[in-house]
């Protein structure tokens, strides 16, 4: 008896004896209101059936959704047979994830629809399961962000990391520093229009994410990636530090090299820096993160800290120590890219985010392990596996290739989080995050093309049992299971990349 396809792979899935549950327009949905509404929406998208949820108790045939406390956080159970489908979550998030799994189980049966007889017990491997969207290189409006939240939540991600500032633009309105959006938000890569989120926009994103059991992690990248800050407040920024390679890259793009105080539309990285020894810089950091902390109910504020090539290493270490302490003093947990891991004085609660390769190079793993040695944890984002903006193939129209060349779906899947950094285990890993940088990404269709199906591989690394601990945790199983999601993704309006690596189901 074959198992139904579920992505990410659950902790336990057993095909049950007996007939499938027949789903039709008269199928009642009883139980938790929010979960019932989520299920009703996805059933309608997938099948065209307009079910009517009820908050009463289940009586006889139907779908029952409920929360029964006591299990692991975010865990759920599904039991389906010919008479009923019962989804139980240990908490509201677990019930929501159970609904997402149930939506994947719905299959065409003749002229109708059914849910196979099955028992699923499931819980996440890691507490933090993130996606990152770069809205600085190219700005993405609120509706696009909300659509990406829906897509990510359907694969059981629970964190949206927003990269809100970079050399090309500043994207969040702050009352304490109004010139950031007045002067530094209007540009993007390649001369495309910029934009920014008003405080009301940001609140809408945060609330929408919460309704899908996701937190928002805002990132203000510093001390590098800060040219836009210098456009708004030139007294805070150093002059660009350009190497010959940077100048040559700018020339190849046909875009002027960065000039202090002037908007920048290229993709060169590493040339900008804040003034490390000026107290006005730390007043700025206190203003920015203080206001952002009040707008962000989630526990994390991301201070960046990557590719600060224009900053002296000793100055960099001093800077990230002070910036992380400012965030910690606000009652938030700082996150920094792995370069900050060996900085003396780094706030001891600071979470590290590793963006090196699956096989580390240049001592990146040693630096990243500094966070663990400091008593904190790591988020793993190996660029040559889960950077969703990497090209699928050398001739693909979208994406980049710097992370060890193009990233196939198989390569995106075939890595194990506990094997990346020597000397750490699952207890040292907060989770996995799949970033989407936007140098070439302009629209929701672009996001879909680059994310799907590779985002599902990242979801499995974050949620499912470790490689070798489940018969499903292998490439051959994954490619079959993800291929079976094609009809669901299509019905949800996801313009996924129909990779030839995957045997796609068409109905």
UniProtKB/TrEMBL annotation:
Organism: Microbacterium deminutum
Swiss-Prot/TrEMBL catalytic activity: Hydrolysis of terminal non-reducing N-acetyl-D-hexosamine residues in N-acetyl-beta-D-hexosaminides
Record domain Beta-hexosaminidase bacterial type N-terminal: where: 4-123
InterPro entries given in the database record: Beta_hexosaminidase_sua/sub (IPR025705), GH (IPR017853), Glyco_hydro_20_cat (IPR015883), Hex-like_dom2 (IPR029018), HEX_bac_N (IPR015882)
Similarity remark: Belongs to the glycosyl hydrolase 20 family.
Name of the protein in its database record: beta-N-acetylhexosaminidase
Keywords of the record: Glycosidase, Hydrolase
EC number: 3.2.1.52
CDD domains: GH20_SpHex_like
UniProt keyword annotation of Transcription regulation present: no
Ranges where the Glycoside hydrolase family 20 catalytic domain occurs: 126-308, 317-465
Class of enzymatic activity (EC top level): hydrolase
């Amino acid at each position: 008896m074959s198992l139904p396809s579920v992505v990410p792979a659950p902790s336990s899935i057993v095909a049950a004896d007996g007939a499938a549950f027949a789903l039709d327009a008269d199928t009642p949905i009883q139980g938790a209101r929010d979960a019932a509404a989520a299920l009703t929406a996805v059933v309608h998208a997938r099948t065209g059936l307009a079910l009517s949820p009820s908050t009463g108790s289940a009586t006889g045939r139907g779908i029952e959704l409920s929360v029964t406390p006591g299990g692991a956080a975010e865990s759920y159970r599904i039991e389906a047979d010919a008479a009923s489908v019962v989804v139980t979550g240990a908490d509201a998030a677990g019930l929501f994830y159970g609904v997402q799994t149930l939506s994947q189980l719905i299959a065409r049966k003749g002229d109708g629809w059914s849910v196979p007889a099955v028992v699923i017990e499931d819980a996440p491997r890691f507490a933090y399961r993130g996606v990152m969207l770069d809205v600085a290189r190219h700005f993405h409006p609120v509706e696009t962000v909300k659509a990406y939240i829906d897509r990510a939540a359907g694969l059981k991600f629970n964190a949206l990391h927003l990269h809100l500032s970079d050399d090309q633009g500043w994207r969040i309105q702050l009352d304490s520093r109004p010139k950031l959006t007045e002067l530094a938000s209007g540009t993007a890569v390649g001369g495309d229009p910029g934009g920014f989120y008003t405080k009301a926009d940001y609140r809408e994103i945060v609330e929408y994410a919460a309704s899908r059991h996701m937190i928002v992690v805002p990132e203000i990248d510093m001390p590098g990636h800060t040219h836009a800050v210098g456009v708004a407040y030139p007294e805070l920024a150093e002059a660009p530090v350009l190497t010959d390679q940077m100048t040559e890259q700018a020339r190849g793009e046909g875009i002027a090299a960065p000039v202090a105080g002037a908007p920048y539309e290229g993709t060169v990285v590493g040339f900008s820096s804040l003034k490390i020894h000026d107290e006005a810089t730390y007043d700025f950091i206190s203003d920015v993160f203080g206001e952002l902390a009040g707008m962000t109910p989630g526990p994390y504020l991301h201070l960046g800290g990557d590719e600060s090539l224009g900053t002296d290493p000793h100055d960099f270490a001093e800077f990230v120590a002070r910036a992380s302490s400012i965030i910690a003093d606000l009652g938030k947990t700082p996150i920094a890219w792995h370069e900050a891991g060996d900085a003396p004085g780094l706030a001891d609660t600071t979470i590290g985010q590793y963006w090196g390769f699956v096989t580390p190079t240049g001592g990146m793993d040693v630096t990243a392990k500094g966070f663990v040695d400091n008593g904190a944890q790591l988020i793993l984002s190996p660029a040559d596996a889960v950077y969703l903006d990497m090209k699928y193939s050398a001739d693909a129209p979208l994406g980049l290739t710097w992370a060890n060349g193009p990233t196939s779906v198989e390569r995106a899947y075939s890595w194990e989080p506990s094997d990346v950094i020597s000397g750490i285990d699952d207890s040292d890993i907060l989770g996995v995050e799949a970033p989407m940088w936007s140098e070439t990404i302009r629209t929701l269709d672009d996001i879909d093309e680059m994310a799907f199906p590779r985002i599902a591989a990242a979801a499995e690394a974050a949620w499912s049992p470790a490689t070798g601990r489940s018969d499903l945790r292998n490439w051959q199983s994954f490619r079959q299971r993800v291929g079976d999601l094609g009809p669901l993704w299509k019905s949800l309006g996801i313009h996924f990349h129909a990779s030839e690596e995957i045997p796609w189901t068409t109905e």
